[in-house]
Write a structure and sequence with these properties.
Length: 282
Amino acid sequence: MKNFIIRTITAVFFVAAIVTSFLRPEAMVLLFALVTGMTVWEFCTLVSCRPAVQVNRFICSVAAVYLFFAMAGYNSGLTPPTVFIPYLVSIIYLLVAELYLKAEDPVNDWAYTLMSQLYIALPFSLLNVLAFRSTGSSIVYSYLAPLSVFVFLWINDAGAYICGSLLGKHKLFPRISPGKSWEGSIGGGLLVVAACIGVWSLTEHYGVNDLGLRVWEWAGLGLVIVIFGTWGDLVESLFKRTLHIKDSGNILPGHGGMLDRFDSTLLAVPASVIYLYTLTLI
């Protein structure tokens, strides 16, 4: 009972922090820059416990935070493309540094170093692509797309848990996540599609459908988030099983670490960007 209360309180503050941060672009950028740095630091700490692995978590974390700020500046129109040069220099440094560190297994060091950027830093940075959109003559900030990703992920998690608990019989991926079922995943997906229809109806009614998506396009976005969010969850589960750990950390009472809370986001955000950009090409 005590653990349930702790989990509930943490979840309420977690959701409130994310939702309110999207009300202002400055708050969104600052919060997720912090989240990016903390998640990369956590990842580097975990992989550095592996035999013969030495990852510079300080530079990896700073580089990740810088990439987030650079993407925010570029996508909001405040900075030119040259803002990415220091980030590229840091990546080059991390690669070249292995020549002088005499590490036992530099290939592993390179792999984990670049994984921290591709798996964590880049997906979080793409939130800025969803948040800042060009309207031709100007760039505007809109919370609708990035906030929708998180809301649909939360709805999917809730629906999958409820349907899985009541109806779950067929395991989705027993080798990696024995608790997930096909019934739960389908139930969560259907709930998200229903939520997409609701979001489309409300945004059309109040004239705030900034994305200009039709109802079937909203439903498609929801399904993309469900599918890639589930894969993101499974990828992190495989990561933890490989390291033989239960939680990625304990920074969030009752919910584990940063990777535990944002695992679905790390694949759902890039997939959403690809989906929305693909719609503009059709």
